[in-house]
């Protein structure tokens, strides 16, 4: 568990890996993003994606799962305070193996709440070919180290 004082710009953290299955893509899409290019491989061939692709929101959810089990372990949990950037530079396909690389960009103590602060993080979700499939810059609320 890492407190606010343990973070510094330039630090990097990794995650485990997650393999995306066709069943996962379709299951998520049926419930949350039921568009043809997320639901049906044959119908997806004639779309912008030229094949079945995971929803960007599914990619975001898988990223969260990888972050939760990864090396970035802020005290209090991974608590988001918002994003400056969120992009999906390429689609996630069934069979892709994803991992997340996180870099600390900024660390700042809260002026109004001395028990916490905020870290600014760039998270890049990468596929098995080392190609980014999602990039975000977000702010996480992190507990400060308790006073002795």
TrEMBL record:
It holds the Pfam family MaoC_dehydratas. Residues 9-111 form the MaoC-like domain. InterPro entries: HotDog_dom_sf, MaoC-like_dom, MCH/BMMD. Gene3D superfamilies: Hotdog Thioesterase. This is MaoC family dehydratase. It comes from Pararhodobacter zhoushanensis.
């Amino acid at each position: 568990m890492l407190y606010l004082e343990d973070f510094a710009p330039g630090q990097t953290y990794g995650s485990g890996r997650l393999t995306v299955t066709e069943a996962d893509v379709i299951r998520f899409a049926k419930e949350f993003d039921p568009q043809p290019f997320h639901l049906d491989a044959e119908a997806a061939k004639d779309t912008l994606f030229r094949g079945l692709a995971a929803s960007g929101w599914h990619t975001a959810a898988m990223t969260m799962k990888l972050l939760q089990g990864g090396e970035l372990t802020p005290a209090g949990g991974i608590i988001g305070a918002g994003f400056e950037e969120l992009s999906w530079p390429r689609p996630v396909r069934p069979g892709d193996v994803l991992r997340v690389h996180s870099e600390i960009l900024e660390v700042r103590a809260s002026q109004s709440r001395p028990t916490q602060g905020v870290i600014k993080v760039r998270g890049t979700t990468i596929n098995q070919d080392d190609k980014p499939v999602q990039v975000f810059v977000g702010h996480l609320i992190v507990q400060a180290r308790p006073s002795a």
